[in-house]
Amino acid sequence: MITELGLPTKYASAIQLRANQVGPFGSNLGDKALRQIRAETDLEAISLWLANYVESPSTHANYRKESDRLLLWAIADALKGPSAIAQEDLRLFRAFLAAPDPSNPIWTVIAELKPVSSLTHEDLARYRQFLANPQPSSTWITEKGARYSTDDPRWRPFASKLEPASIKQAVVILDSMFGWLVESGYLRGNPLGLLRQRRRRPAQHVTRYLPGIMWQHVKDYVSAMPEEDPKQLRDKARARWLTTLLYLMGLRLSEVAAGTMGNFVRQLGADGTTRWWLEVVGKGQKYRRIPVSDELLAELMRYRQAHGLDPLPAPNDTAPPPLLLPFRRRSGNAPGEGVNRKTVHNAIKEVFKHTADWTEAKGGEYAEHAAHIRDASAHWLRHTAASHMLDSKIDLRAVRDNLGHDSINTTSQYAHEEDDRRHDETTQSHRMNWE
Question: Where is the Tyr recombinase domain (predicted)?
């Protein structure tokens, strides 16, 4: 079960040894006879909770990250005690992690670790405060811009201090975990249920999107990309297709990575007109269909032909190509093998970086535009798509369905043009007119 968690091997070994030596003893454990799962330890119970999300890789990764952080914090919190960890304790603890052994003197401290099944309301209130500023930073935060595997000594659980929205999301995820553990009978109660819930504030407008003029910079840059050799032709075709797909379809990063060209389907409508749709299985395994315009269909044909494929997907293709074709095809690649979320993320970030450099070189007011574009990511294009659809007067319900939102209130956050118009009309017409 331990391998289903994302913990570094050394920490996982310490926690597993702790469970094997002492056994489950959490003060919040439910009656074993009434449990609906066979988990004997906290690690096993958390792994079973995570297993519910394996079919949604991005959700699974986010949930695993938060449960791992809580487990590691519980270790550090027990070791810290009333003052900073003594250097000798640190030396012994590192030795213990390298070779877990109860004969190590630090075992007397390890044996007192508070398991997740003993965490209280007070513990989790402190943990929420910790998320805002994990200290010492050298222990918890990875050096800026670096990425390491979990078994690299330089790996740390955090990339930076968490913003309020990220803390809220972490608490929501852990609340879900504790709620599931209670429902399964593994725990008696949910310690997070006692945290004060802030009054729900009205939905805020989304600001992480590209206004029209900045989106035009992106299109102008892609159009100006060189195409003097085969590699440049492929790079330009990829950039043009990826920006088109993300913008016109409003797709999530995970939906691009998981999708195939077999998801494009042609259907005869009630009025006798043939229309193309893109079928998507999105967040929470929700199915939706997104209208495919003639413009997108033309770009799909252009992209496929640039890679030597037939213009349109075959309706009965048993191994359809992925929505985004592999950047460097290796021998032996399966016909339908695609790219992962990280590769898609890096590809669109590269487009934004080069667009920002290209825009900044124009000087003057464009420097501010460039800074905004440089911060953009794939999800910004989803926000941009929503904002521009609403600005084009597409019905709010249609935009909601295209994006796969549960609530129309979520979709309403993207209506920027209405706010701009309201601001202009109010400030120009509603005046004091002092003499």
Answer: 220-428
Structural domains in the chain plus CATH codes: 2-144+151-194 (no CATH), 214-327+337-423 (1.10.443.10)
CA angle 405–242–219, rounded 5-degree value: 100
Structure confidence by residue, pLDDT tens digits, 176-212: 999 999 999 999 888 888 775 554 554 455 567 888 8
With contact defined as beta carbons under 8 Å apart, do 181 and 354 qualify? no
Q: For residue 264, list its beta bridge partners.
A: 278
pLDDT of residue 435: 55
Distance between start and end Cα atoms, the chain: 78
CA distances (Å), origin 401, targets 105, 387, 415: 60, 14, 16
pTM as predicted = 0.52
Name the range with the highest mean pLDDT among 10-19, 33-42, 394-403. 33-42
Each residue's pLDDT tens digit, 11-32: 555 555 454 444 456 788 888 8
* Number of Cα atoms under 13 Å in the Cβ half of residue 136: 6
Using one digit for the tens of pLDDT, what is the confidence trace for 314-332? 887 888 899 999 876 544 4
Closest CA to 253 of 318, 344, 334, 163: 344
Question: To the nearest 10°, the Cα dihedral for 302, 306, 311, 315?
Answer: -110
Residue 131 phi/psi, 5-degree rounding, is -60, -30
The share of the chain scoring above pLDDT 90, in percent, equals 18
User: What pLDDT, on the 0 to 100 scale, is given for residue 364?
Assistant: 81
- Indicate whether 142 pLDDT > 50: yes
**Identity of the amino acid at 388:** H
